[in-house]
Design goal:
R2K_3, 34% helix, alpha+beta, globular, disordered N terminus, 218 residues, two-stranded antiparallel sheet, 18% strand, 6-stranded antiparallel β-sheet, ATP-grasp domain-containing protein
Length: 218
């Protein structure tokens, strides 16, 4: 169970792996939403057994840290710009981020397959030109879209992903203003300057060779 829409400062904590966790999470969702909204109750639409990543911070660690395996797809101007890790990354300490980086690198092919599997739905859906789609993975490895959010939510907690968004937005706005369209390599160079590292080398960002057109065919 997830309720990241409650916009907690720690959305990665809002998952329930057993009945007690689910009940506690539901209670917390209602408590938070009642501050601003009239909530009569919650309806369970579907229960998903989502994959998590377990991070052992020391050899033989019996209490590994568990974080979500969730990916955020960023669509800019009708094109799939990138997939980035949507969970704690920059906020983690170095000794925890290192094993998480290894786990994310090992899942690169899984993410790439998920992106391609979901593209047909994105191509045919009546969606805005700019948005992000949050994707999680059930235990059998199948990707599932959890929710859609506005573009400003892109690059959450991953500096290199945010840098790529800023660079791509700048290039897009310049092109709209009449300047020549920036090549993809130039956008990546600009993002590297902003982030202080190559986006292509970040374990928390997955790129296709070029942004994929997700605009709706007429």
């Amino acid at each position: 169970m997830s309720h990241s829409s409650a916009k907690s400062a720690n959305p990665e904590l809002y998952y329930g792996s057993n009945q007690a966790d689910v009940e506690a999470t539901v209670f917390e969702v209602i408590r938070r939403l009642r501050v601003a909204l009239d909530v009569g109750g919650l309806a369970l639409r579907e229960h998903l057994d989502l994959e998590r990543i377990e991070l052992a911070t020391a050899p033989g660690d019996r209490n590994p840290i568990r974080v979500p395996f969730e990916v955020r797809l960023t669509v800019l101007d009708g094109r799939l710009l990138m997939a980035s890790y949507h969970g704690p990354f920059e906020a983690l300490t170095d000794d925890v981020r290192r094993p998480l980086s290894d786990e994310l690198t090992a899942r690169s092919e899984v993410v790439q397959r998920a992106v391609r599997a979901l593209l047909p739905a994105l191509l045919t859906a009546d969606l805005p030109a700019n948005y992000v789609a949050d994707v999680a993975f059930v235990r059998d490895g199948q990707p599932v879209v959890l929710e859609l959010n506005p573009l400003y939510a892109a690059g959450y907690n991953v500096p290199s992903a945010h840098a790529l968004l800023v660079a791509a937005l700048g290039a897009d706005l310049a092109h709209r203003a009449g300047y020549a369209e920036s090549p993809w390599t130039e956008i990546l160079d600009s993002a590297a300057t902003l982030a202080g590292e190559r986006v292509e080398q970040s374990p928390a960002v997955w790129l296709l060779r070029e942004p994929v057109d997700c605009s709706i065919s007429s």
